[in-house]
Amino acid sequence: MNTESVLARLSALADKSRFTILQIMAKGAIGTCCDRIEAYENGCCVADVVAVTGLSQPTVSHHLKTLEKVGLVRKEVRGPWTCYFPNPEAIEELINALRAELYPSGKCDVDIQGGCCS
Amino acid sequence: MNTESVLARLSALADKSRFTILQIMAKGAIGTCCDRIEAYENGCCVADVVAVTGLSQPTVSHHLKTLEKVGLVRKEVRGPWTCYFPNPEAIEELINALRAELYPSGKCDVDIQGGCCS
DNA sequence: CATCGATATCGATGTTTGTGGATATCATAT
DNA sequence: ATATGATATCCACAAACATCGATATCGATG
Fold first, then answer.
1. C1' (D10) to CA (A49) span, angstroms
2. Closest amino acid to nucleotide D22 (CA–C1')
């Protein structure tokens, strides 16, 4: 995972609305109106998120698109509904990247232009 | 860790400049100009970050303050220098929170107002 | 106490982005 | 084909924020 992707996922997660969407997906908090999503799938359609969050439909569509673009959710059209499903692997990748990039005493792979005295 | 703190840390991490600052701290990429920081401490003073990133001094001070406010770095005044040190525990806490909040099939602790059909 | 180096704060600016109303698109059923 | 429900896109607006020049504050030193 390159730094750009890490930053994109962090930005996607850092918004309250999007974080809430992922939470309710993860917790199975949505009794979906879409008759093509099984409970174990932890998925939801756009209207579900609108109902639970109180956000407008365009806003929800926009957030889901953002989450999909960075790989945090997977999109699947099922009949008239567009269904979204969480992608735990993306979170795991992000966690691994954070550990690799931000934990002290790793080898230096940053371009150093020298300290202020060099 | 409450959701508010998680979002604050994610926002702090999601900025390219701040992420870079944490990277160069973690990797020990700074040959510091401050004579009171030992190499093993992975710390740096403000001027070091200015030199390495090319950002202005006010911008660097602002970013370091942001990082400190959310607990990602620790601040310590040593003589004429203000030194900053990474705090790996904050990242670990964040990782644990992400796993707890966003991994599917946990118990639901989100306030549900019902799906769109309820 | 006066000066100097280091950092923090202030104020302004330009960009990004979250939001929602209006509208278009898409899939399905009749 | 036409209508209807579901979602995506377009557009505009407002709030948040990254950035930096100017200035203030703070610590050390002579």
1. 22
2. B58
C1'-nearest nucleotide to the CA of A80: C27
| Residue-level pLDDT at B30 | 77
Q: What is the DSSP string of chain A?
A: --HHHHHHHHHHHTSHHHHHHHHHHHTT----S-TT--GGGT-EEHHHHHHHH---HHHHHHHHHHHHHTTSEEEEEETTEEEEEE-HHHHHHHHHHHHHHHSSSS---S-----TT-
Note the pLDDT of residue A30.
80
For residue A86, the chain B residues in CB contact (below 8 A) are 102, 104
Contact check, Cβ <8 Å, A10/B7: no
CB pairs under 8 A between A and B: 160
Alpha carbon separation from A59 to A27, A64, A73, A82, A105 (Å, rounded):
22, 9, 16, 15, 42
Could you tell me the domains of chain B?
A: 3-101 (1.10.10.10)
* Residue ranges of chain A whose pLDDT lies below 70: 105-118
Label residue B105 by pLDDT band (50, 70, 90). low
Nearest to A29 among B7, B14, B110 (CB): B110
DSSP characters for B24-72?
HHHTT----S-TT--GGGT-EEHHHHHHHH---HHHHHHHHHHHHHTTS
